[in-house]
Amino acid sequence: MKGLFKNYKNDPFKRALVTVGVPVALQHFIQTALNLIDTIMIGRVSKEALAAVGLANQVFFLMTLLVFGINSGVSVYIAQFWGKKDIANIRRTMGVGLVGGIFIGFVFFLAGFLFPVQVLELFLKEQAVVQIGAEYLKIVSLSYVFTTVTMMYSVASRGVEQARLPMVVSSLSILVNTFGNWILIFGLFGLPAMGARGAAIATLIARVFELSMLLILIYKTDNVLAAKFHELKDFGVDFVKRILKTALPVIINEGLWALGTVMYTMAMARINSDAVASFQVMMAVYRFFEVAFIGLGNSCQVVIGNRIGAGEEHLAMDYSKRFIRLTLIVSLITSFFLYILAPSIASMFKVPAHVQQDAIYMMRIVAFYNFPKMMNLMFIVGILRGGGDTLFAMIIETLSVWGIGVPIAFAGALIFKWPAYMVVAAFMIEEVIKSSLGAYRFVSRKWIKNVVEHI
Question: How many CB atoms lie within 10 A of CB 246?
Fold first, then answer.
């Protein structure tokens, strides 16, 4: 491992791992670890509170994936413009991403703030859970626009190989969030115990803190991303159309994938609230294990985009193969630990024994599917998007989730009446199909596209 990072400044592959992969992985590691603690805290209030917050956060999850779709689309351009050291177009591209992200954030804010009960009743009709979730959603929706701006600057930082800054800021904000949760959920230092409402207030405070700190540090240090307002809005219709040609498939991809994932939660809700609780436990734990792959995927997208933008397509192919080998090794290690540690981790959640047991089954099922699942992240987020092949990435993602995963999930829950863990085992078959299609596209080399060559 020491040799992996030796002389990294002279090797784009190693440099991407150090400057992008490691900071992004650390950022997600800290975020996921503390989110896991938050989930444990909410779980200690009641299983209804755990299910309610889990369902309410599906709205946030859907919003962030749509915004991530925009950001991922524009990040293809940012990475390739950085390969050309074209600062003016990087800032124009950021402006396009900010406009799209803020628009989506505002729409989701209106839905969550004005219609929280109606939104949550799309998932579940149990009023005890809906009322807790609606109170949480109404408060936390105030943070949505702040989050979308933070996401754009964070993604742009990674595209120009400066991922350390958003890592530090995000880590500080997560600490603020967790400390706020501890005080407000349980009512410490003379404050009343607010339960799920306290968790929402802590999240809002942390999101405002995060954006404020990020912007202050970027603009005080005269960062590459310290764009003036006129630079951000210096884009015309033709520029937006060109970006949308690549970005729109990513937006659709992430939107439909996120909606499909929300549908998996809805399938769990059709079983009962216990199934939702066990599914939320599994997801909170699994996100802890996938942080390394998020770092690998982001660093792969940046290094592939940089090499293609610089006209070095042969290196893009070579570095892709190195990322695939690394993904294989890390996936085997994480699968082993997830399978072995599942009972110990589940025991940390104060939920009924049968909910714990279902969560253990789900964790072990996901450990079995871990390699194809993580290869999908590498193929779609890292290689295909980094190479500018966003349309094919959208096609295989959408067909797999909506043509295989979602129908199987609802058939298992509503028709065959399977237990929750069997539904998970069945719908994750789509990961195997998707990874096979991704491998086929990779071998064909048709994913290598220079999208900034004529800009």
Answer: 22
SS (H, E, C) 289-342: HCHHHHHHHHHHHHHHHHHHHCCCHHHHHHHHHHHHHHHHHHHHHHHHHHHHHH
pLDDT at res. 453: 67
Lookup: tokens for 211: 């954006």
Retrieve residue 345's tokens: 């981790």
Q: Which amino acid is at 150?
A: T
DSSP 357-416: HHHHHHHHHHHHTHHHHHHHHIIIIIIIHHTT-HHHHHHHHHHHIIIIIHHHHHIIIIIS
**pLDDT value at position 311?**
81
SS (H, E, C) 97-124: HHHHHHHHHHHHHHHHHHCHHHHHCCCC
The pair of three-digit structure tokens given for residue 342, joined into one six-digit string: 């599942």
Q: Please give the Cα distance from 425 to 409 (Å, whole number).
A: 9
Residue 69 exposure: Cα atoms within 13 Å on the Cβ side: 27
- Which pair of tokens denotes residue 82? 């950085």
Residue 412 in tokens? 């298992």
pTM: 0.71
If you search the block for the tokens 């025991």, which residue do you land on?
347
Length of the chain: 455
CA–CA–CA angle 452, 453, 455 (5° rounding): 60
Question: Quick one: pLDDT band at residue 112, thresholds 50, 70, 90?
Answer: very high
Which residue do the tokens 């959603």 mark?
137
Q: Would you state the pLDDT for residue 6? A: 58
> Rounded to whole angstroms, how far apart are CA atoms 317 and 307?
9
pLDDT at 454 over 50: yes
Report in angstroms the alpha-carbon separations of 130 from 21, 144, 280: 39, 20, 16
What would the two tokens of residue 448 be? Answer: 């290598």
The residue type at 404:
I
What digits encode the pLDDT tens for the residues 146-190?
999 999 998 898 878 787 888 889 888 888 988 998 899 888 888
